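Explain this protein:
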Amino acid sequence: MRGTSLILSLTTATALSAALAACGDNRPASPAQTSPAETSPAVSAPAAGGPPQAAPEAVATPQQAAATPAGSPEGGMQGGTDDWRKVARPGDASALGRMDEAWRLARAEAEKAGFSRQVEALGPLADPNAGQSGRLQPAPGTYRCRTIKMGSRDGAGLAYVDYPWFACSVEMTPGGDLILSKTTGSQRTQGLLYPDTDRRLVYVGAQAWGDEAHYPRYGQTPERDQLGVLERIGQNRWRLAIPWPKQEAKLELLEIVR
């Protein structure tokens, strides 16, 4: 009997130990054992016919803000001036002065050709008065961008064309220049953003075409030159509007989101 009692006691102790061990295995994992949280992309893919869903407003870091020149940059691509009028060719400056006319004629032609629904779906992007004041400069970094062309330059081309999304970037150079680049696609552009008013910056740049490895400088090849206006049109959303571009359209828009 004593042998039987001893065996029962050992069996009970073994079962109790196993039960306690099993309870220990069911404890929640420590923070070091949990898998990292999955994060959403900064900008979701745009729905058909609608604008993309942007992430919260991108704000320059203190380091980036400190790098922003308070006055004229020294030794940068702007040649020591922050006045775009000293850089722009007279014909391009004149075209920029006819921005309102480009908006009016380009929209009217696109709508008359049957693209009213597409134009309306663009929302603020196609509203000439959508520019907002404050935080005009996009923070340095990578962006998504797409091109919309409205109105035909010679009256014989397409009245409305929209392109898929490509890659853009904004760079602040050590010399204080803010450079906007469209880095992918068959029509790429790069140029400088100059201060102008409390609602807009002026873009002075030029296009690279096809598989060209380098961007031309503004003024090197007149048919590639571009002069336009960059405006913030929403949360983390900008628009570059180029009136009377040298090719294809009356008005070219580049939507930029992050």
